[in-house]
What does this fold into?
Amino acid sequence: MAFELLNGSLKIDVFFEKNDKEYEDNICVCLEEYGPEDERIFYADETNLFITAEEARKLAEMLIEAAERSSQSSR
It folds into this structure.
């Protein structure tokens, strides 16, 4: 489920990490950043955030709500 932002300089991938299935925070939000160091947001080329299913649902809800508000304001 990867997609790119910021003209391809930031790749975001979200996936269930089956090797961590025994842990509650087994959903990985992987951020890979490309481009010149002085333009980067993160220190590392790749940053992984592990979140719970509940946190993933909340994040999805927040993104959908923001997208809906954006769509409504541009009508």
Observations:
- Strands lie at 3-5, 10-16, 27-33, 46-51.
